[in-house]
Amino acid sequence: MTASVTELTITAEDRRVAWLATAAVTLSLVDAAIPSPLPGVKPGLANIVTLVVLIRYGWATAVWVSGLRVLAGSLLLGYFLAPGFFLALTGTTLSLLTLGLARQLPGRWFGPVSLSILAAFAHIGGQLLLARLWLIPHNGVFLLTPVFAAAALVFGTINGLIAAKLLADTPAAEPAR
Amino acid sequence: MRWLAYVRPGDWLVMAGGAALVGLTLPMLWQGGFAERAIIRQDGQVFAEFELGSRRDVAVPGPLGITLVAIESGRARVVADPGPRQYCVRQGWLARPGEIAICAPNRVSVQITGRTRTYDSLSY
């Protein structure tokens, strides 16, 4: 038997990202199963995972987990490369950039709740902009902005609280599954 | 509340900022103005124009018969139409500026307008 030319070494970090991404994908599926009165208004439960990962393992890991979640989630739900995929990608990208910046805020004053709300607003903001620029080039897109913004505030706060509780309940040494 | 323990001082600030943002975007719900008038057209000509104030029924004669339009405060609809497919009747209440119900066979249309004119189509 010849030795394999390329050797893939799987690090502990890889395993951790895979586990966390799995958790995020699962929550995406739960999210999709929750009936929504309006397309675009949904809890975004997977962002709880993103927040926990960001605070515990750093921004780079959060980007990996989120990226894999969008990719695997869209494949499982069947909207890969459909408009919804690009909406999700834009929202996720903007909220990750926002999280990267917001992480620099003093932790004593701004906790997971702040990060979650800011990310939620960035998410819906990015989606609305992409929808306006690409999918529906008409200002009528912005008609329901208040509804989306209110949803971002409410769900952002709730997800932030859940993330804060998860972080408080699980000691830092144990890798979160 | 034990959940309150997870909210840090700055978080309240962000929440207030978010609420303010929601408040600021609230007028977007009314862009295009409120529904104020209903314009009824027959064969392309303005047949009648009403403020969406008090209740009234309007009978509009057309080539097939009478199209019955109901006006209420803030909304209007086609109640009955002699057309075969009843699209304009099934459209139900029209309550936003720019909305229009067209009963093509009888050549009657009901359009809602607001303070500012909105366009139903644009071409470049």
UniProtKB/TrEMBL annotation, chain A:
Keywords annotated in UniProt: Membrane, Transmembrane, Transmembrane helix
Transmembrane segments: 17-34, 46-65, 77-101, 113-135, 141-168
Protein name (record): Gx transporter family protein
Protein's organism: Candidatus Dechloromonas phosphorivorans
